[in-house]
User: Which sequence fits this backbone?
């Protein structure tokens, strides 16, 4: 993208002085990318300077895992949270995968360990384990197949078994259970600290204020919140829905930066902002991105015996299409 087109994109969500402050770092990062043959993957929850300013590819967990698997770059800098960079390393064990802040975690990933999964497998012998990619490589290694919020129902239905253990997101598990005949055994402790904040009454209150409001939720919200919405899907499915929909007034029930980034992509639409911030995603700043490329830090590596097992579960998901 040429520099004036990029500035125009940034103008939709940043103030002029914010663009001026970000600009030298954006140029420096663009240059470092060329020098080091690096690709930058940016999750939809990155702030607009990181999302529009320096990403080669943007998207949801599924889309970015695919991009990570396909890339020919020598270095993958994953602007997102740790489990996402770890997934990139699982599918690309011989490449250098970096994250700008290794403390960028996830409340879902922190809710479960490989020991917990092994215990569940003993409790429900023979029942396959489906794990949402928001978990550690060790948990993925105990898994039959991974899923994301974009393909969770399809993944569950792809299994021949009448029951599945679905980990770790209890709300996503319940939302999937409403769309499949299979019995879903879930992990009650797994919640997204961002999406669990929303209550059904929040949506009803906003609907009273805005005529013709289209409400879009992420399936990490509770089923009661999802039931109040017009559409629920992964972060990229949200954007696709908006692109195809005539909706003019949109309430996004998800992380703050999603709305900021979509505002630049759909300037003709009006977004009602009721956002919640993910403190983990917000650890990734433009300055840390520059430092990550400059010093080639912080490398995300998975032990070979874990990587091999986790790869099977991730590849099985990617093969589903
Ligand atoms: P997506 O796969 O929908 O981008 O979700 C990832 C995530 O962490 C949402 O909270
Ligand atoms: Fe994890 Fe929720 Fe943050 Fe996504 S928004 S990274 S699920 S804590």
Assistant:
């Amino acid at each position: 993208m040429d520099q004036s087109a990029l500035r125009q994109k940034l103008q939709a969500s940043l103030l002029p002085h914010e663009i001026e402050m970000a600009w030298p770092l954006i140029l420096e990062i663009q240059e470092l990318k060329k020098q080091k043959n690096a690709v930058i993957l940016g999750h939809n929850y990155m702030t607009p300077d990181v999302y529009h300013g320096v990403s080669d590819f943007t998207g949801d967990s599924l889309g970015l895992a695919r991009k990570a698997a396909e890339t020919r770059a020598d270095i993958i800098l994953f602007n997102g949270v740790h489990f996402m960079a770890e997934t990139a390393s699982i599918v690309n064990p011989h490449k250098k995968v970096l994250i700008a802040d290794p403390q960028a975690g996830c409340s879902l990933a922190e809710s479960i360990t490989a020991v917990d999964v092994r215990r569940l497998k003993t409790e429900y012998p023979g029942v396959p384990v489906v794990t949402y990619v928001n978990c550690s490589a060790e948990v993925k290694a105990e898994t039959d197949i991974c899923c994301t919020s974009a393909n969770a129902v399809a993944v569950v239905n792809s299994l021949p078994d009448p029951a599945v253990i679905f980990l770790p997101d209890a709300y996503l598990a319940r939302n999937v259970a409403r769309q499949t005949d299979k019995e879903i055994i879930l992990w009650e402790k797994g919640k997204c600290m961002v999406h669990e904040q929303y209550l059904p009454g929040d949506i009803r209150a906003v609907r009273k204020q805005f005529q013709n409001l289209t409400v879009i939720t992420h399936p990490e919200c509770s089923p009661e919140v999802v039931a109040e919405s017009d559409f629920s899907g992964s972060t990229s499915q949200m954007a696709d829905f908006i692109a195809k929909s005539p909706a003019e007034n949109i309430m996004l029930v998800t992380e703050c930066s999603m709305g900021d980034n979509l505002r630049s992509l759909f300037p003709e639409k009006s977004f009602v902002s009721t956002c919640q911030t993910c403190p983990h995603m917000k650890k990734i700043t433009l300055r840390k991105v520059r430092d990550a490329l400059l010093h080639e830090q912080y490398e995300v590596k998975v032990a070979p015996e874990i990587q091999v097992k986790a790869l099977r579960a991730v590849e099985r998901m990617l093969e589903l299409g």
User: Anything to note?
Assistant: The chain has a mean pLDDT of 96. The chain has three domains: 3-103+281-295, 109-191, 195-272.
